[in-house]
């Protein structure tokens, strides 16, 4: 499979038959295709992957075809925002997009030392798999397009000492709206969230019943996300939205509940229980158990016996 790397924004614009960027570290634009161009924009049957050495925010409607980001197939819906960080790779095959596609590309140096840089570090959607992309309502799409157009207008003006600050202000607003819309998307997807959390618990049950805790140790959040087929950050956000607790908290609570059953239902010692649950050191188990229950394992057994 061919892999195309865009080392800078100038290369990126040239590949799309766009003018050289006004600023080598930043570009914004809209591609409007005719019906003939739409039909001709289908890629070859061979998959092609792209890697950019800069950030990209795009708004496009994918009519058909496949776009794979990480290991996950892109979910093609109207008004889809796509966020990509430097050195991330995406793969396309037979892609057809609607007539209007907006994009912003900017180098890390363009935002260094700014509030936008701080925001990006906190926004998980730059690290999501694309089936977790942002799908906009028509009203939300109009808001985002308005900001794109405002940034483009400033970008096309004669550059002066105010240009960068104005662009960054609108870029910051774009990111904040995206964050708001993502949170709405999570709230609107409660059934999906519940299904993911149910699968999360099922995986833990299978892991425990197969004695993998004792053999391989406590599963990490990254391992759980891989089994679920989603990114670690997406899993974390979904479970936190659904339960109010992080994935790691849920794993620990599961271990504590299983520990209660083992401590009261078997003749296993506290140390044996700890090892069976994947703890390398019994004192770590005792510390977690007390943190979650308010009692040490010994105190819990004594309390249960008295009752």
UniProtKB/TrEMBL annotation:
Keywords recorded for this protein, A-Z? DNA-binding, Transcription, Transcription regulation
Q: Which InterPro entries match?
A: Homeodomain-like_sf, HTH_AraC, Tscrpt_reg_AraC-type_HTH
* GO MF annotation list: DNA-binding transcription factor activity; sequence-specific DNA binding
For this protein, the record's Pfam families field holds: HTH_18 (PF12833)
Give the stretches traversing the membrane.
Answer: none
Tell whether DNA-binding is among the UniProt keywords.
yes
Per the database record, which ranges form the HTH araC/xylS-type domain? 202-303
Q: What is this protein called?
A: Helix-turn-helix transcriptional regulator
